[in-house]
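Course assignment 3, question 2. Fill in each field.
Student: A.L.
Task: Predict the tertiary structure for the chain below.
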Amino acid sequence: MSSPAVIGPDEMVADHPCTDPDLYAADRGLLAYMLQDVRALARLATKGAVDVVEYEPLIWFVHGLKRRLVPCDLARLVNGQDLEVVGFFGSRRRESKGGAGSDEDPIDGLDARLTQEFRRYPGIASYSTIETVDGFWANLVLHSVPSDAEDWRGSEVHRGAVRMSPTLYRDVRIHNGQLAGGVDSTSEIVLHGTKYWDYGLVPDTQPTWTAVRTW
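Answer field:
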């Protein structure tokens, strides 16, 4: 794979629609939406209004679309320290959604396997997943320090997810940023940069195109 292209904040690269700058605002909005779920859960748990078991996924549906929130370290979420942010967004391949008679979306199953690994990575404070229209998924990870992300990438399940990405997604964008003051604050997520992977219209038929952007 060649070195990632470096693109400007307002630049859209021809033939790579994942780099459309308009997606940035939409992604930020969805991350903020998921963050509100984490904030509500953390505050209710802190007040004793709900019982929360760390590492046990909470699953619910809104308008038939699935959401999952895994509270991994409630104390870390609300201790007033800054949190690192990772936001994942992927453009789904239609043919990867499972055929007739399939009981499980492959991405949903992969997500469940990933959450089972979290006990091995104590830096992760919470992990949220939201299903959007047309089978798309987005993830929000809140963690303690930047090195947590590198540790997590060493997970065998995570490496397996990376290998599957070209068959599941046409393209992927991953945002990195920070939440000042943690969940128990009124801060907004600030995104510092985005990485892009474009796997092409047909998987494994052309080299993966990659790029980085600083906001």
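Instructor remarks: Residues 5-214 form a domain with the Alpha-Beta Plaits fold (CATH 3.30.70.100). The two ends are 24 Å apart (CA to CA).
Grade: pending
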